[in-house]
Amino acid sequence: MRFFILIGIYVLLNSFGQLLIKLGTQEIGSLETVGLQGWLNMKLITGIALFGMSFLTWIYILSKSNLSYAFPFAVGLGYVTVILLAMLFLKETPSYLQASGMTLVGIGIILMSWQGS
């Protein structure tokens, strides 16, 4: 049970970090011409901080579980979570192939969860 909670924390930190980095870069525009003021964008800074916290969480997860189990589980959940967040906050529309992929990944996550850590 602890594994699933840690993976959930990792996925949420990572996914919201990715979302905020995307939102921040949309606000500052071109990275080639942005000055210091652009890099001080709060969404960008918060996204980078969440991404960093997810990295630290990931290190802890790997210290307690098998890489061959944790990595596919985290990547699969992250894939689905990022697409759902992009739909909700960025108004992105997934293609039919993405939706099919999300379904297959979801099935894979369910099958892996039966295996246990």
What can you see in these coordinates?
This protein has 117 residues and is an all-alpha fold. It has one domain (2-115). It is built from five helices and no strands. Helix 1 packs antiparallel against helix 3 (42-64) and helix 4 (67-89) packs antiparallel against helix 5. The model has no long low-confidence stretch (mean pLDDT 90).
List keywords for this structure.
117 residues, mainly alpha
In short:
Helix content is 83%, strand content 0%. It contains 5 helices and no strands.
- Give the number of DSSP strands: 0
- Tally of distinct domains: 1
Order of helices and strands: HHHHH
Average pLDDT taken over every residue: 90
The main pleated sheet reads as: none
Distance between the termini: 9 Å
Class of secondary structure makeup: mainly alpha
> Rg to the nearest angstrom?
16 Å
Query: What percentage of amino acids are in beta strands?
Result: under 5%
What global shape is seen? flat
Helix content: over 70%
Low-confidence stretches: none
